[in-house]
């Protein structure tokens, strides 16, 4: 790693959530809820988590401990403001409880907004996050990405008080994930690490998290993708995804996410698949400005130390995961491109991109990945 620039006005960084990590760690959930001063739990999840049997495993732990609980499992793949309203109404009916978010990024993000919305005033209800994918790092911050269907844009809802108090990182909960979801969520974690390294908001602390995250995910994601039952690979990718979440929470991200959010908003493409479609093109666009950060990413991925090596490694990794496709194969119509470019320009996440962008440049980038 090169020497990171020291911020002229210093650093003020709060540690994020407490982590409980390890295979089988879900068994600690009743004690963790108790330590937050609650004896009741309101679980927020989605139907996929229920269908995979993961919700039942968690409910069995709560039932055995005699904890009263209710379940809201109506979170869609890209949660909307109406998801938040109905989840909050259910929580108000259930009454005071710890909120347990169980799932990938969507249930975790929805849970933050629901925990906030259900309270008449701040702070929001205490939140425990149990990721069932290794990707989003959503357990590390108090902000949820929620879609406003009227504008097809992402809105960021949240508050420091609904940053999860505890994250239970139990890799056993991810061993049943299908390979294509392992690929999409794991690639999201890799992009979090790379974009965090090159972000305008990067600092020595975020870079430490990001470099380790990139190293873990690049090395172990292909193994977890090949054999989903490999618990060591699942464990290391889960830690990598969490560290990437710590990194991005401190640094912000960049244009891969700006475009990715806009593509998902227009075509419903899964987050990681949308990122994979534009990753190489955006890295090439940024390479002159972000050369040193990309060199750090290359070294973390075990490749040579320049931007070209990082771009090659990231592309090869995505290809090995069979996740990279042109936008035209992802439900994106050519006439959506101007609106995608506009939404990406307006997305606050784009402001941390190392290189400046104009809407016209983004439109050109989209044409080359179409
Ligand atoms: Zn992401």
Automatic annotation (TrEMBL):
Keywords: NAD, Oxidoreductase. Belongs to the iron-containing alcohol dehydrogenase family. The keyword Repeat does not apply. The keyword DNA-binding does not apply. Pfam families: ADH_Fe_C, Fe-ADH. Residues 18-171 form the Alcohol dehydrogenase iron-type/glycerol dehydrogenase GldA domain. InterPro entries: ADH_Fe/GldA (IPR001670), ADH_Fe_C (IPR056798), ADH_Fe_CS (IPR018211), Alcohol_dehydrogenase_Fe (IPR039697). Residues 182-369 form the Fe-containing alcohol dehydrogenase-like C-terminal domain. The lineage of its organism: Bacteria, Bacillati, Actinomycetota, Actinomycetes, Pseudonocardiales. This is Iron-containing alcohol dehydrogenase.
